[in-house]
Every structure is written in C-alpha cells, then in structure tokens.
Amino acid sequence: MTDIPLDTMAGAVARPRRDIGLKARYAAERRFRIYGVIAISVGLAFLAIMLITIVSKGYTAFWQTTVTLPISFDEKVIDPSNKRATDPSVLIKANYPKLAENALVAKLGIDPANKPMMLKLKGFLSEGARVQLRDIVSADPSVIGTTRDVNILAAANLDSAFKGQIDLSVDEARRKVSNQQIDWMNKLKADGVMAEHFNTGLFTYGASSRPETSGMGVAIIGSFYMMVIVLVLALPIGVAASIYLEEFAKKNRFTDLIEVNINNLAAVPSIVFGLLGLAVFINFLGMPRSAAFVGGLVLTLMTLPTIIIATRAALAAVPPSIRSAALGLGASKMQMVFQHILPLAAPGILTGTIIGLARALGETAPLLLIGMVAFVADYPKTPFDPATALPVQIYMWANEAERAFVERMSGAIIILLVFLMAMNITAIVLRRRFERRW
Amino acid sequence: RDQIQVAGSSTVLPYAKIVAEQFGETFTNFKTPVVESGGSGAGIKEFCKGVGEDTIDIANSSRPIKKDELKSCADAGVKEVQEVRIGYDGIVFATDIKGPDWALVPADIYKALAAKLVVDGKLVDNPNTKWNQVNPALPDWDIAAYIPGEKHGTREVFETKLLDAGCDKAALKAAGIADDKEIGKTCIAIRKDGKAVDIDGDYTETLARIDSNKTGVGVFGLAFYENNADKLKVATVEGIVPSTETIATGKYPVSRPLFFYVKKAHLGVVPGLKEYVEFFLDDQMIGPESPLAQYGLVSAPDAERQGQRDAFAAGKTM
Amino acid sequence: MNIMTEQSLENAVGDKMNAKSNEVIKMRGDKVGVFYGEKQALFDVNLDVRQNQVTALIGPSGCGKSTFLRCLNRMNDTIDSARVTGKITLDEDDIYDKNIDVVELRARVGMVFQKPNPFPKSIYENVAYGPRIHGLAKRKSDMDQIVESSLKKAAIWNEVKDRLQEPGTGLSGGQQQRLCIARAIAVSPEVILMDEPCSALDPIATARVEELIDELRQNYTIVIVTHSMQQAARVSQRTAMFHLGYLVEEGATDKMFTNPDDKRTQDYITGRFG
Amino acid sequence: MNIMTEQSLENAVGDKMNAKSNEVIKMRGDKVGVFYGEKQALFDVNLDVRQNQVTALIGPSGCGKSTFLRCLNRMNDTIDSARVTGKITLDEDDIYDKNIDVVELRARVGMVFQKPNPFPKSIYENVAYGPRIHGLAKRKSDMDQIVESSLKKAAIWNEVKDRLQEPGTGLSGGQQQRLCIARAIAVSPEVILMDEPCSALDPIATARVEELIDELRQNYTIVIVTHSMQQAARVSQRTAMFHLGYLVEEGATDKMFTNPDDKRTQDYITGRFG
Amino acid sequence: MSSLLVLAIIIAIGVVAFVIGRQRAAAQDTGKVKPHSRAHYHGWWAFLLAVLPAVLLLAVWDIGSSFYLDRHIHAALPERTADSKVASEALDASLVKSLAKGLRRLDAGTPLPATFAELQPLLIAKGVALASDTQDYMIPIAVDANTVQDRLGLFGAVVTFALSIAGAFYALRQIAPRARARNNVERLMLWGLLAASTIAILTTVGIVLSMLFQTITFFESVSPMSFFFGTVWDPRFAAAGSGGSQGQFGLIPLLAGTLYIAAVALLVAVPVGLMSAVYMSEYASRSVRSVVKPALELLAGIPTIVYGIFAVVTLGPFLRDLSAALTGGSPFIQGQSIFTAGLVMGVMLIPVVSSLSDDIITAVPRAMRDGSLGLGATRSETIKRVILPAALPGIVGAILLTASRAIGETMIVVLAAGVAANLTANPFEAMTTITVKIVNQLTGDLEFNSPQTLVAFALGLTLFALTLVMNIVALYIVRKYREQYE
Ligand SMILES: Nc1ncnc2c1ncn2[C@@H]1O[C@H](COP(=O)(O)OP(=O)(O)OP(=O)(O)O)[C@@H](O)[C@H]1O
Ligand SMILES: Nc1ncnc2c1ncn2[C@@H]1O[C@H](COP(=O)(O)OP(=O)(O)OP(=O)(O)O)[C@@H](O)[C@H]1O
Ligand SMILES: [Mg+2]
Ligand SMILES: [Mg+2]
C-alpha cells in the first residue's frame, strides 16, 4: 500500500479551489487517528501494568529453596523393632522427618543434646520431607541402611528468608524466622548446600496446607479437562446454534425470543450457572461433586452465549452475494453454510472462542457451588474425580494467611496466563489464516 | 465413593485442610479427603440434602447448626448428626505494625462504629470522625474500620460481644427508646457513612486494605494475625492481649467456637470417615502443641477435647 | 453422467435446428407475480421457455427482467421480502411445489448473476466448486478437465491459465464475469439463466460468449437478459419484452424485431422509448 | 461553492468547443506502471487527459483499463498488493507526491466504479453522502435539490422519486448503476472517471447517460471506460486503446476509429481481434 | 458388555454401512437417470440410520437397566428392622453396589468367601477400599447383581446391534438414483442444529426453575413491595435475628450500584475498545494488528481476582492519594469507589469490544470502503458513516456482551467498590451490585433457608428480568438501524 501521511496538507496546490472544509476534516481525521492510537495505548499500557505487577510479584515462585543433605536411611529410626517384613505399615508410619533432622543436625554441627538449639531447628525443613523420604524408601526399601544425598525442601518461611522477602528489621519475636535460623541459613548457603532450584513442585504438587509443598498439579489437570470439555462442547454447539438461528430459522417472534434469550444468558452472573449446575447436573442427574466434568459442563453453558453472539455477528457479516453465488450453483443451504459462510465467518468465531474460553478459564464463582473450590490433594485420574482449577487455586491461595502463598499465587497467575496463551495461539494462527478482505 | 467429602465454612477450611493433608499422608490406603470452601450455610445445605453416596459426609461450620437447619436435615433423611467442636477462633483488632499501641474497650468500638449515638440525651447520627474523639487515649486517626461483612459468622460475634456489650443501653432508654428489641437493634446498627467498611472477602482482603490505608483498623482471626505478625500490630481488648492462652482461659472476650458436623449414617459406609474424624479429634491435631494450634486455632481445654472424643466414640447425635 | 464433452458439443453444432423438438416447452411461467414487501415488481407474467432455444428478455432497466429470471430457479427465495405468486413449471413440474427440491432445481437451472460474484477462493476452486458438490468428477484429472474446458468455453482460459490458484476476486470486472459464466456452465445445468452475461465484456469476448450460447443451445435451454438489441437479435430465437413489471409481448425474435405487435416494443427496439 | 446548477449547465450546452481551451492538459500519466504483488498489470503508460474533453479507454477485458482509471484518483491505494510506479499529474501537480492530499484529490477526481456499489443506506443518503461530507449544502433544501438534480441527470429520478428512503441495495442492477453515477456527480468533481457506466443500462438509459456525459464535458473533464465502440465513438473526443497492460495507441477519436496507426487497434475496432 | 464397546461396535457397523451405501449408490449411477444425491450422502444416511437409533436405544437401555438393577437390589435386601446395621435403605443399596463393583476386580475363579471379614483382604489386595459396614448378607446380593447386570448388558447389546443392522439395511435398501439421501442427511443435520439452539432455551428454563421456588419462598417472608422499592439494603443475618430483628431487603441501592458500575465500565470499554478495533482494522499494518489484537485479548484472560487485587492494592490508593493531592487535603475519591471498579472492569472488557468489532469491521466488503473513499471521504468519515453503520449488528452484539459481563462481574466489584449497599450519586464513593450480593448471600455463614440466603435467588431472577428488557431494547435498535450490504 502506498501510504502517504494524510495529515500533510496539499501545499503544492496553487490554484484557488472549492472549499470542502478540508482543514477541519483533516483535523477530525487526525483526531480520530489519535483516538485510535490512544485507545490502543491505553489498552496496552494497562496490559503492561498488569503484567509487570503480576510478573514482578510472581517470578520468584518459580524458584524454591532446598537443602541438599546426606540422608542416612537409618534402620534404627525407620524401623526400630525390625518388623517391616511382617508389617508393611511400618514403612509408612516411620518418623521420616527425623532422618532429615538428623542429617541437618550433623551438617550444622549442633549437639543433639542441646534442647533449646534443637527446638530452634524446628520449622527449618519442610514437613513435606516425610512424604519425600517415604517415597524414596517405598520405591526401593533396600536404601535402608545406606546414605544418600537428597534435596530436602526448606520450609516456606526459610524459603522466603532465603529470597530476601522477610523484613529482618522487624522484632525477632514477630517474625516467623529466628535470627539463629538466619545464621544457619547463611552458613548452609555459604557451603553451597542450600540453594534455589527451579520449582517443579509448583507444577506437579497437588494442594497442600504447606506453601512449599503446594502446587498447581491438580488444578492444571482440572483446568485442562474443563477446557477440553468446554471446547469440545461449547464450540460445536455454539456454532451449530448460531447457524440455525442466523441461516435457517424463520425470522419470527419465536426466534426473536431465542435470540434475546441467548443475549440474556450472557448477562447471567456466573454463580447462577453454578446454581444451575448444582440443581441439574449434581442433584438431578446425580453426577459427582467437585468433578471437572461437571465444571466443564457448567462452564460450557456459561461460554455458549459468548460464542453464539460472536458467531452470529460473524455470520451476519458475510455478504449476501456469496450466498447467492453458492445457492445459484445448486449448493444446498447446508453446503452453502459449511463450505462458504463458515470459513468466511471463522475469524469472528475464533475470536468468540478466545474470549469465551479466556473467561471460562478464569472463573471461580460458578465452580463454588459445585464443589470445585476445594482442597484437593490427589490427582484426578478421570474428569469424574475431584479436581480444582487454576483460578480456584489462585483464589484459595489469595485467601491463605501464610504470606508464602501470595508469591505462589502470583506464580499461579503467570501459569494461568501462559496456559491461556498456549490455548489461544492455535486460535490466533487459525484466525489469521482465515482472515480475508474482499 | 472412596473419598471423604467435606464442605462448608471457609474459616474452618485451613484447619480442615491441614488435617486432611496429614490424614492422607498418614493413612495411605485412603485418599486425601476433599475439603470444599463455600461458607457454612452452603455447606450445611449440602450436608442436609440427604443420605447416600452423592451427598457430602461432613459440614464445617463456624457457627452452631440452627434448629431450622437440623429440621430440614431430618426431613431429608439426615436424622443422625454428630456435632464436633474443634476449638475456638479468636477475633482480634489489628493495625499496621508501624502504628501506636492500641487498647480498646467495647464501648470505644461502639462509640466509633455505631450508626446512632446518644449525645446530650438525644439520639443522633454518630458524630465521631476520629478515634481520639471516642477516647482521648486513642490516636488521632480518622475512623476507618474494616469489619467482617454480614455474610460472615464473625460479624455476629463482633456485634454481640463488642457492640452490644459496649452499648450504653441506659442512655438509649433515657433517649426515649423503650422497646428492648428496639434498643438491641440500635445497639448493633453500624454506621454506613464509609467509616466502617464491610469486608465480605477473607482476611487477606482486610490486610490489603490496611496496607493501602495505614491508619485503618481491621478485624482479623487470631490465626491470620499470628501468621502476619510482622505486618500487623494487635490491639488489646479490655487490657487483654489476645493469644491462644488468654482465649482458651476465657480472659479475652471475643472468640467463637468452630464446629464440624458428621453424618453418622455415613460412618461405616464411606471408607476412612471414622478414621478421619478420630484423627481430627486426636490431641496430635487439636491439642495445644498441634499443627492446628500452631496455625492459630485456640484449643479447647483438655476436658472439653476429651469430652468431644468420648461423645463421638459413643455415637452421640444431636 | 452428463458431462458436456467437447465432442458431444461439436457433434451438436453440426445439427440443424429441428423445428419439432424446439416446440417442447421446458419452462412455463403462469401468471407469475412478484412482490418485494408491499411493492409488486412483476405482474401476471405468462411466458414459455422452449427447449433448445435461447429466449432473450429485454426491456428498460428496472422492468423486472432479473426478478423474473430469479423466479425461474427460485433465487427469489433468498430475498426475505420477496414473495412469488402464480405458477412456474419445469418439465411440467411445478417448481414451487412442496415436493420439489430447490437444490436439485438450481442444479438443473443454473444462473449467472448480473453482478459478478466470484467466491473469495482461487479461480480453480470457483469453477470446481459446482462439479464437486454435484459429484461430476471422479478423479482430480476429470476435475482439471472440467475446469479447463469450462474456462475455455467462457473465453477466459488464456488469461487465467497461469494463475488458477490466485483468488477469483483479484480479476478484472470482465474476467470475473466470464469466470462466473464458466462456473455456471461447469455444472452443465439443463437450463442456463444469464443475467446480462456480456455487460462487462469487450466485443470480441462478447462474440465468444455468444458463440458459446449458440453452442450450448444445442443441448441446453437458455434464457438471457440483455440490453443490447443486437445481441438479442443475434443469439435468441425468441424474445420477451418487459415493461414496468408487465410482459408486453413475446414471440419469435425475427418477428419481434421486424414486426412487433406492441407499440412499446417497437418504440423500445428502435430506441424511441423513455 | 461550485454546485452545478441547471442553468449553468444549460448555458454551457450552448457553447461550441473551443479548440484552444481543449488543449489544456488536465491530467497526465507519465510512464505509469502498476504491479499487483509480483505481477505487472500496466506498463509504461503515457497518456494525457485533456480538459473539457471526454477520453475513452478501450481495449479487451483484463487489459488494464480499470487499473489505469483507478490510478488517476489513487484508488489503487486501497488495494494492499497494488503498487504504482511512474508519475501522474493533475493540473501539473504530481498526485503521488507526498504533499498531495488524497482526499482532496478524490473530491476533485470522482469515480464511478465498474461494479455498482451503493451504500447500504437509503437512496437519498447514497446521493447526499458526498455533498454532506464535503459540506456542499448548507441547508436541507439545498441538499434535497442536489439529490434531486443529480438523480435527474443520471436518469433515474422517475424510478426512485417515490422511494428515496428505501435502501439503495434494493434497486435493480441498472438502477444501482445510475444511482452510483448520481452519487458521483453530486459532488461535482473536476474530473469524472467512469468505469463502464452504461454496462447494465438499456439503450434509452444509455442514451440519457451519454447526453449527460456530453453536458458534463462542458465544465468537467471525463474519462470513460467502455466496451462499446459505438459509445466511444459517440461520446469521446479522444480514445486510448489498451492491450495487455500497454497503451497501444492514443489519439483523437475520429482518427482512431477511421484510421488507426496500430494494427491491433484496427483489429480490435473492427472486431477481428482475439 | 460395556457400553463403550457396544458403542464402538455400532459405529463400526455404521462405517461399514457407509462404505456399502456409497458403493451401492455409485454403482447405481449408470448415467441414465440423474442421481438425486451424491453417493457419499447415501453412505452418510446409512451411517446415520445405523448409528443414531441404536445409540438412542443404548442410552435408554442403559438408564433403564440401571433403574432395574436398583430395584432388583432393593428387592433382594433384607427387610429393614430397628436394629439394621446400616442407617438407610439407600445406603444399604449403595454398599451393595460398591461391593459388586469391587467383586468385579477379583480374578475370575477366585473362590468367594462367605463373610466380609474374609473378603476384605482379598479386595484390598486388588486396591479396592470398601466401607467397614458392608455386611455378609450383601455378598450374595452383589454377586447376583453382577450376573443380572451382565445379562442385561448382553441382551441390550444384542438388541442394539439388531437395531443398528436393521437401520443399516433399511437405509441400504432405500438407495436408488432418485432417493433423496442428501435431503435426509441435511434434515438430520438441521435437527442437530435446532437441538443445539434449544440448549440455550433449556439453560434459561433451568436457570429460572432453579431460582423460582426459592424466590417464591423468599417472597413469603418479605413483601415484594419492600423488596422492589426498598431503598435500604440491610439484610442482617438470621443468626442474630433470633431476637426477631428482620433485615431490610431493598433492591434499589443494589440496582443503582449495578447500573452505575456497568455504565462506568461501558464508558471505559466501549470507546477504548471500539477505537482500538477501528484503528487495528483500518489504520494499523497487518503486523501491528497481529500483535496488538492477541495482546489485548490477554486482558480478557487475566483472572478477575487479579484485577480486584490490583484495584485494592494499587489503583484505589493511588486514586485516593491523587485526589487528595489535587484538593490539597481530603481525598474526594474513596479507596473503594464505583469509579475504580468501573475503570478496572472497563479495562478487562476492552478486548471484548475491540476483538469482536475488529472482526466485523474487517468483514465489511471493500466495495463499501471504495465507494466512500472514491467520493473523497477521509478515512475517518468512511469509518464513521459507512463502515460502522454496516457493522452495527456485530458491534451492538459486542457491546451487549460487554454490558452483560459488566453486570455479571463479582470479584472486581467486591474488591474495588466494596460490599456496602449505599445509595449515592457520587461515582467516587463505594457502592455495590446485585451480583455481589447474590454471591455473598449464597456463600456466607448464613442459615440456608432464611430469607437472608433466599434473597439471592430473588435478586438473581430480578437481574434476569432486567437484562431481558435491556436485550429486547437492543434487538429493537439493531433491527431499526441495521444496514445490510450486498
Ligand atoms: N486486485 C487485483 N489483484 C491482482 N490482479 C488484479 C487485480 N485487479 C486486477 N488485476 C489484474 O490486472 C489486469 C488488469 O485488470 P483491470 O481490472 O485493469 O482490467 P480491465 O481492463 O478493467 O478489464 P475489464 O474490462 O474486464 O474490466 C487483469 O489481468 C486482472 O486480472
Ligand atoms: N430486493 C429488492 N427489494 C425491493 N425492490 C427490488 C428489489 N430488487 C429489485 N427491486 C425492484 O423491482 C423492480 C424490478 O427489478 P429487476 O431487478 O427485476 O429489474 P431489471 O429488469 O433486472 O433491471 P436492470 O436491467 O436494471 O437490471 C425494480 O423497480 C427494482 O427497484
Ligand atoms: Mg437486472
Ligand atoms: Mg475493468
């Protein structure tokens, strides 16, 4: 396109000419354009602010402090009375944290008899060590009696201290980390034993009451299930409904009613869809509570109006001449719609899908009443098992008293946005492919 | 169904979470219970829907179940409900850590937050705008109190234990309100001019408000305060510093019990339910040294805890 | 299958018109009226379209030619406000009957619109679309052949043969018009309705299209709207003159152009109208 | 203001052509080339458009007439893939100059497109649109007058006077074409570019438009694309013949039609081309 | 046989029917008669007839047999007596069902112990956790239930296959050159489309029904007059209400807040979004647009709670301090205000307007632009007078969607504008919305069958009616001003 700045007035024109108010019109043009630039800048500026706020708060969540300790899997601690051959529950109930504590004590050179010191050690390592060490042992009981280097998670407070998020100027009694612990931390840091690692746990752990062992694993799976369900149901149903209403339905009172109805559904507060889900899917159809499947259905109903509105607008924007051309060749209406109109309306449909899914991905309220705003520690195997969702995890972490969760929450938001972008990218690429000016 | 389902109060949620997590870690043959949040009302509603696989087993509540609710429970077939009191939740006032020390009495709170006060024998709209107008010992701060919204059970405690307690009923009567009911109503009516801000969210929201308004006073749960002691400074009420001890002994006036309700019919039916409740009631969980206490739950006295255990073991229903 | 092959056409060209067979009435309009909303655009038109003949519709702009044409393959159905009265038959079947399948009707009665409306697809796809939905080509090579022969017949092959994959909307006005002709004949309908098919064509292209029409007539039936009296005289066997929504006169082209019954026809043909 | 009033036109009609004034060159194309993407559609066209004359562009379909026409008021700017080289002047100002103002240019050089494209607005609004944006009518009554006279000139007034508020898209093909002519002349541009303005018109309407062109020529400059040699001969003073993107020959219409220099022109005019 | 397997087999039958149908139709096309439908339509018709009725039957059969099984189990259970070990018959049956399910996990041929005590370890070894209340008498019932279920399943499968094959044969028999297979297939598709659009209706019915009864109950204790025309929202809580202090449920402050906040949000989102759309589609280069559009769409994907927190922590205090600095002392913008909430919500909604409008604007044919530009209109005139009117239905749709979202939003309002139901005209003060109250009344500690909770349903229905009116008006506007290009 030969794009010539429109705002330069024709200076070279010599002869006096008819006054068509060009000056004012150009000013209007310029203003209009500037409004456009301003509008986009406003949008992008807000986006930037939001992203900066989120990322600057949350990026630290992707690192987690661990202490590498040589754990000796001491038989005396794990199985003092040597009954594990007969009673497998011994290995489950064993005092694993003690193993970690012993290793730490040895590392720091504390006298185990020094009770006050030992007391201060409490809360240095994560309680999650229990599960971590137990898993090692149950995977391979032969480790008992040997020594092995294990990365033990530091407790959340130490993690915060390590990342420098704890204000050390506050009175020691008011902090969750004592000066002694800080000293130990610095010592371990200097030894290179205590360090930050990439926090894979954030992606793999389920919910937990301990910040350091809580992760988005269950939420990611839950959201994934739900988004698949929403996509698989809402997109085809939405497009089908729009096609019916826009292309086939006779224009009469009844279809007006449906149209108004659908627009109206878009304004129904999302929690009401939760009520509906509770009444219909759980109470009436007897589906399980807290299940991603029900969540997906509820979000589908919530997303449908958005997709339908966008699709109908896109269908209506296809010029009638294309329709006549297809029909005139003996295409049936179905063929006309699916082979000509739909491809041309695809960008609008995809936009509706992007916006609808973005909302479905970020909603908590409708999930509240169907039991998905919950503490779920175990991975769901199927969409019918209890699960949570990304926004739910964010919401729940946002309400946690422990500060370390705030960081995790921001990290979770970043994950959600990445999830969203990943989801959108296909749609955006497709949309670009279908876009056509005629 | 092989998983325990719990729903209800978001105040009890953190405790239930800790228990559920440890339960799952200890009893590896059972799945970790699912603990929903959603408010006591909604939890009890789900609880009272009936008996069977597709109903929940436990409802957490930050208030005792109501007669009405029990009745509809029974109507739906949930005839045997076991009540478990897990401990107490202290309700504290706190300000930003940089602020001065606060010592409150219920009357201060009443005078600062009531909608109408008796001034010179007449009932007028609350004229106080600064704390030191209420009580010269308090700082010269604009009144800005972040109090629990009406959806919260805490609000009720706040009204009865502070406003009602601090209310000068005699003065009200003198001002011409004869009806006791009317007096009660006036006592707990909170001003609506923006000085008292309802918070329907959680305490994190209150904390955020204090963060953004350093001269605000917020109402928190004790547990929340303890977890954020580096940001908040707690106020004494009637000279008592709130702590697990002062609350447990009943010296600190503002606290409320926390409960959960178990569907007895499910006890042998849902795998692990019985074990879960027993695990919850164990001193390892709700004793004074337990993780719940560390988190901020105020343990009930020893005898009361034992009583709860016994009652549960005996299968006592409401 | 019924594809027009080059040969069959060539054979046909040799035939002389058989007066008998030409009297078969392919389509018949009986008291056709069309309303756009309240407004009536066509009044009581009785018109026969004879098989293997070219019927030309003439008349001043806005007299209802396109409207009548669109009735013949029920394209008026797509205009919300349009309502058709009267009866139209194709091979004696009422095309507005409930049992008739419009899609099949339109496959049998093809149309070239007044305003060229290529699909925003490649030139190849534009032509291949019809044969594809009607299953006229079994193989890719068959399709290529149909596309090529259709484009050749529409006298546009040379211009587009190197750019078959480019969008049909990037063609010049006249090229689009010929593309639309190619597209319509590619499905080899029994009746072809052409609404001013040569309006944007130069004389040579026009001549080629006229030749095409003459060829097609051997096997098909054609109705053409034209503003050029010369063209009507050249290509058609029968002519119908419309005016203000009425069919003024209809008859053999020779007679119409030499000795019309109606004064208006005469005036119009001689350019005295208005 | 410069509204064409009936009188001024009537006065102008009386004037005889002044040989001198006609030699003023209103627009000049200098080595104009146009590319659509990679493909060159127009090659080195040098063509002068003389003031108060009608220049006809002829040539086979797809030869670049519309492309050249669109260069003259920079409508090619709106096609993403189009690129123009060379120089075009209007009153000696380079219209592709950075300083030139396209809006003013297009207000001075108006255009009637090949495919009628009425706005989806009422007929009245279609015509009033141009005058309104240019502020050519102060009062409602002025506007009414402009609309009426434009429609009258385009020979469509009688057909639409009762339905001015109905949408322009509900008109017949020929009516739409005349509406677009009316729309273009309503802003009284200095140069009017008409791309086959009579393609969908019957002979009488065509004659009326040709009359209009002849009238307009007195005050304006007109470039017209046409496929009808007769029309070119009737209305134009100068004719330019395009072929395959090249300007083959250009000259006085009389000469072009009687004694062309180029063989291709001769072939084309006599219909032997192709 | 598991339903999934049956389904797979039915589909396989359908595929076979498709292939045969297509071939038969192709074979019949000898060129003598013009076939009505293409061969693959015959194939599809055969497929559909083979699959659809069978699948329907399968679904019905599955539901029916699970009912039957339930009855069967209930009938087999011993009479209930006062000392029954299990609390209710329903629980009894569910224990049997999970036992039956567990038994299926046992290896075939394992001898079945007679008591649960012996059975349990076997099951645990297979990873089946069973309730401790399972009784010995349930074991034979469970075994029997499994046999019955197997038999039902098998019978059902046979019947379905028969139906499927019958359907296929019927369709294949019908194949003839003039058979209207395409119409049949398309009619079914049309029914499918129609069914899809009725989902919206069903949703509405569901929503209304799930709120109606509680609403009626609510109005039994609170008069509609005081609800609809009350200007004070102070529901109190049932807990304290023991003293009989009935709250006040005035809708007006909430309604005002809803409309006010939505209006502010629209004032932000619509101009910004529309201008962005116009700029992206008409001015910006392709590359700019392809970056900006998805970037703006991210705004719609940020969870609303994040916006809320942003409003509380950053924007609210900033605006308050700014206003304090402006007046040099007391801030006129409160930390929580309609303005803040509307602003933040508007930002969130920008992409809803911008992206949808952008698509519609891009879809306006170029001939429209050319027509206007060719007359000497500037770009902006073209946009304002030709393109936007032509794109109006889509744009109104986008704006409606925006308004809807604004009305239905909770989290942002809770955090940015608060929950206090004030009635004020000052946009810089706190107010709250209907939606917020719906959520709060439903999720609090309030007693669930008190008017305090039930009012949420009344609010929900009221909002529903309100937005219905809004949409009817919008439909009318679109109808009136719509400009349909060719
Ligand atoms: N948008 C476009 N993109 C690509 N090629 C184009 C485009 N527009 C026109 N062309 C090509 O440029 C050449 C000239 O086209 P132009 O429209 O100028 O022809 P024309 O002389 O007006 O023909 P006609 O008489 O058929 O209208 C043609 O080959 C045409 O296919
Ligand atoms: N969609 C429509 N809505 C309303 N009126 C219409 C519509 N289409 C055509 N008309 C009117 O019906 C009459 C006949 O139109 P028609 O298109 O049949 O004319 P035509 O004979 O084809 O003219 P032309 O030669 O100009 O194409 C005209 O007056 C026209 O304005
Ligand atoms: Mg016509
Ligand atoms: Mg052209």
TrEMBL record, chain A:
Highest taxon listed in the record's lineage: Bacteria
GO cellular component, one term: plasma membrane
Keyword Manganese: no
Subcellular location: Cell inner membrane; Cell membrane
PROSITE patterns: ABC_TM1 (PS50928)
Any one GO MF annotation of this record: phosphate transmembrane transporter activity
ABC transmembrane type-1 domain location: 220-427
Main localization (coarse): membrane
Keyword Transmembrane helix: yes
Entry membrane topology: Multi-pass membrane protein
Keywords, comma-separated and alphabetical: Cell membrane, Membrane, Transmembrane, Transmembrane helix, Transport
Transmembrane segments: 32-55, 218-245, 265-285, 291-315, 336-358, 409-430
PANTHER family reported for this sequence: PHOSPHATE TRANSPORT SYSTEM PERMEASE PROTEIN PSTA-RELATED (PTHR43470)
Family per record: Belongs to the binding-protein-dependent transport system permease family. CysTW subfamily.
This protein's name: Phosphate transport system permease protein PstA
Organism from which the protein derives: Mesorhizobium neociceri
Automatic annotation (TrEMBL), chains C, D:
Domain ABC transporter: 27-269
Entry keyword annotation includes Transport: yes
Domain of life: Bacteria
GO terms for MF: ATP binding; ATP hydrolysis activity; phosphate transmembrane transporter activity
One Gene Ontology biological process: phosphate ion transmembrane transport
SUPFAM superfamilies associated with the record: P-loop containing nucleoside triphosphate hydrolases
Alphabetized Gene3D superfamilies for the sequence: P-loop containing nucleotide triphosphate hydrolases
Keywords: ATP-binding, Cell membrane, Membrane, Nucleotide-binding, Phosphate transport, Translocase, Transport
Entry keyword annotation includes Cell membrane: yes
Subcellular location: Cell inner membrane
Record-level GO cellular component terms: plasma membrane
InterPro entries: AAA+_ATPase (IPR003593), ABC_transporter-like_ATP-bd (IPR003439), ABC_transporter-like_CS (IPR017871), P-loop_NTPase (IPR027417), PstB-like (IPR005670)
Main localization (coarse): membrane
Membrane topology designation: Peripheral membrane protein
One Pfam family from the record: ABC_tran
Described function: Part of the ABC transporter complex PstSACB involved in phosphate import. Responsible for energy coupling to the transport system.
PANTHER family linked to this entry: ABC TRANSPORTER I FAMILY MEMBER 17 (PTHR43423:SF1)
Family per record: Belongs to the ABC transporter superfamily.
Protein name in the entry: Phosphate ABC transporter ATP-binding protein
Organism of this sequence: Mesorhizobium neociceri
Source organism phylogeny: Bacteria, Pseudomonadati, Pseudomonadota, Alphaproteobacteria, Hyphomicrobiales
Automatic annotation (TrEMBL), chain E:
Any one biological process term the GO annotation gives: phosphate ion transport
SUPFAM superfamilies: MetI-like
Subcellular location as annotated: Cell inner membrane; Cell membrane
Pfam families membership: BPD_transp_1 (PF00528), DUF3708 (PF12501)
Superkingdom of the source species: Bacteria
Membrane topology: Multi-pass membrane protein
Major location (coarse): membrane
Ranges of residues in domain ABC transmembrane type-1: 255-474
Keyword annotations from UniProtKB, A to Z: Cell inner membrane, Cell membrane, Membrane, Phosphate transport, Transmembrane, Transmembrane helix, Transport
GO molecular function, one term: phosphate transmembrane transporter activity
GO cellular component, one term: plasma membrane
Residue ranges crossing the lipid bilayer per the database entry: 43-61, 152-172, 193-219, 251-274, 295-318, 338-365, 386-407, 454-478
Family designation: Belongs to the binding-protein-dependent transport system permease family. CysTW subfamily.
Function, in words: Part of the binding-protein-dependent transport system for phosphate; probably responsible for the translocation of the substrate across the membrane.
Official protein name in the record: Phosphate transport system permease protein
Organism annotation: Mesorhizobium neociceri
Source species taxonomy: Bacteria, Pseudomonadati, Pseudomonadota, Alphaproteobacteria, Hyphomicrobiales
